[in-house]
From TrEMBL:
Coiled coil regions, renumbered to chain: none
Identification of the protein by name: Putative agmatine deiminase
HAMAP family: Agmatine_deimin (MF_01841)
Gene designation: aguA
Active site per database record: C360
Amino acid sequence: MNTTGTSSASPTPAELGFRMPAEFAPHDACWMLWPQRPDNWRYGGKPAQATFVEVAKAIAESETVFIGVNDDQYENARHQLPDHIRVVELSSNDAWMRDVGPTFLTHPDGRLAMVDWEFNAWGGLSGGLYFPWDKDRRIRLKIAEMLGVQRFFTPLVLEGGSIHVDGKGTLITTEECLLNPNRNPNMTKADLEKLLGDFLGVTKVIWIPRGCHQDETDGHIDNLCCFVAPGEVVLTWTDDESDPQHAISREALEVLESSTDARGRRFTVHKLPMPGPLTIAEAEASGVDRLSSSRPRQPGDRMAGSYVNFYIGNTVVVMPRLDPTHDDEAKAILEGLFPGRRVIGVDAREILLGGGNIHCITQQQPKA
């Protein structure tokens, strides 16, 4: 396993021919982590663990699934998960593999590599969601060692949920997240675009102003908008002009409709209805430990629920079921967009209570 830094003498991943493929490209595996943090997951994570098991089982219909587990939960996780899901000891501070895990790259000659971004728990000591995050910072290195692949390290603070790519040179992200001063305060938009190009092989960045309303990640793109094919995206949407999400989604739509991708194509935007609005119930909040080092979960707090937060596998799309009023409509839209994949809905409120959803707890390992 080789590690490459960011010195001017070292060629960038893009210069070496590596790039980040789209999520809808073929995978070899999916990586997840096991929830147990009692100040984020109610009742010691037991309800969330049951939901993670269902997500893992759905994805495992399509590809190999690895679940990283802290040692004190290893036997419990192994007992709950089917034998064909691979449980590995991989310590973490919490279970958001999309953000703490590696961003995988592929090369035309068949090699697999990864980007090891810096991680500061969504804002560090200025708005971050928990402390410490030392175990999370080691996850990329450990996975690189397990797989024996080249690791490109960069001190750029970036979470995987803040970016989506089409695999053809285009990346979408939000200004709210990547330009937030609690991530990389000394970097300009131009600086970030250069680094994204250097490490992911993209040539065009589409900047959406904001992410979903009340998204505690500072507006990750994967909760608002994602690629379903080159030149095609889905966007969370509400027609309710009194809802704060309406203005956010309208802004995003205007940017997308006035932009072209790296190949010069206009975007086709498919609207996915917003669930809810969804709020935390009294019984749900009361099961969470209250610690000064983590974000509180209060009754009545609005959650950033979104059907866009789904996972695209080789033969399945695993989507959250969040609201009986809109679940079937969202599923039907996704079935129309992914005719070659089976759309599986998983009751995912327990993941949303922790601050994210199915895309946030998964990380695809592309086929090398």
